[in-house]
Amino acid sequence: MEWDSDSEESTGGGDDERFMFGGDGVGAVPFPVVEELRPCGFVVTDALELDHPIIYCNPVFEMVTGYRAEEVIGRNCRFLQCRGPFAKRRHHMVDSAVIAEMRRCLQAGAEFQGEVLNFRKDGSPLMNRLRMTPIYGDDETITHVIGIQFFSEANVDLGPLPGLSAKEASRITDRIHSSFTSSQDIQAAGRTYNHGMCGLFQLSDEVLALKILSLLTPRDIAAVSSVCRRLYELTKNEHLWKMVCQNAWGSETTRVLETVPGAKRLGWGRLARELTTLEAAAWGKLTVGGSVEPSRCNFSACAVGNRVVLFGGEGVNMQPMNDTFVLDLNSSHPEWQYVEVSSPPPGRWGHTLSCVNGSNLVVFGGCGTQGLLNDVFVLDLDATHPTWREISGLAPPLPRSWHSSCTLDGTKLVVSGGCADSGVLLSDTFLLDLSMEKPIWREIPAAWTPPSRLGHTLSVYGGRKILMFGGLAKSGPLRFRSSDVYTMDLSEEGPCWRCVTGNVMPGAANPGGVAPPPRLDHVAVSLPGGRILIFGGSVAGLHSASQLYVLDPTEDKPTWRILNVPGCPPRFAWGHSTCVVGGTRAIVLGGQTGEDWMLTDLHELSLTSSMT
Predict the structure, then answer these.
(1) pTM for this structure?
(2) To 5 degrees, how large is the angle CA 381–CA 385–CA 391?
(3) CB 275 within 8 A of CB 608
(4) 313 in the Ramachandran plot: left (φ > 0), alpha (ψ -120 to 50) or beta?
(5) pLDDT tens, 385-398?
(6) 611, 262 contact by CB (below 8 A)
(7) What are 552-570's pLDDT values in tens digits?
(8) How far is CA 361 from the centre of its chain?
(9) CA dihedral 221, 222, 228, 234 (to 10 degrees)
(10) Which of helix, strand or coil describes residue 166?
């Protein structure tokens, strides 16, 4: 790997002190302390991959070099030694001795400091003072290399790039001059500060933390903490990390996380790191007491705080069931308990169960003794005498089963697709606001809708955005398993479906990475920060590999990633019901082996370190 940005000497005297990212130092990453008051470029490369590809760059790097993050992720840093994006070779004025020293340090696992000539995307030169620091894993293997870069104007006249007009060259020169020299140097306390570049550091700690740092993402806070000692001290504050998590993940997610036993001991900083990187994710078998009797399949489950609630299902001889069971994972010895309720809904299977307003359960649709259903029932699980009550919403959708649903803002139920009478597949989307005194169903109009389907999933991300994945979709007279992804932003005045992957819509393109095979009856888990985790499902038979796939729909170019998780996953991967408990644990219930249903076979995908 040949880096193109350097930091020639240690700033701030002879201090080569290091600090740890992560409050308690467990699994922490050492970063060099840089006592510069200028913004710095920050790049991380993967040392375990061939040619050290970039996996992260901060906004300062993008601003100074002119390259966007999506243009550099996956590339080696040596492209900065080429003049312009189309140059194929290192510029002859780049010091080859410095490059050779970079290589030597990388091969020896040593830190490098130096200065090298780099070029912006527009071909203009700049000097880059670089410090490269190798990061070691638990087995003393170098896993990453961190580059901290201080850019300055290069006093080199190379002339314009070939094909660049004199007017364009003049404009670029003026912009460069403005970005580096328009601000005025001032003297204070024996040190020189650049007013334009260092105004941020003239703010108080309170303003920095509350008005600026709290608005950044967890990844950006981790990068900022490495810039200087003052920012490092600020980013150790647990209250700041809580605000960062709340802004990034939403107040509801952070509220649920606060109720998780042991979360306070783990700390918001570590929670943020582990839920962002998924470095601590692991499968485990969950042993609980009690039982759900009689045995059933096609039930629905959801989480209410740290409790798993199960309702209904299909019993022996296709008998629809209407009983309710609760598993309290806050208990030292969790066990299934039957809940005595009044006025239960008619028995059903193929329905959905959701949670709204903290502790209220909502059942919609399914198939019962009388056929398909489109009724809505609500139960307050924390009431002294829990009682199901029917919500007579006006203008309800068609009766259906095997549909998908999700909740918005803790008060709104969204229902999509499913199977109607005579096996007709549906493509509609309805919303019911349960906060209204007399709720009214509202169909969400769209100029274009995804193909009709059943067995798909509907997930919420980014507050009011929904993501549809997979299912058994209609294609002309045929039906095929799908791996397409569609999104809709319900905060827009005229919401519309957008095709993220697949070939159904003109201009649609598959994302990078390895996409999950087409499937239905799978599991989708919404992770903090907007990512969606896909697991299991019916792929091309009774079973599918229990491989985990992650997609971040908030990226400019969403990319599927395979998540390799240690531990013991479920043996069989379809017919499950899954819910996220406390924001950190995905509980997997049931599953089909091809011969019988395994309702008592519970597995847990823990997203964070043990907090017990």
Answers:
(1) 0.67
(2) 60
(3) yes
(4) left
(5) 999 999 988 889 99
(6) yes
(7) 998 878 889 988 889 988 7
(8) 26
(9) 50
(10) helix
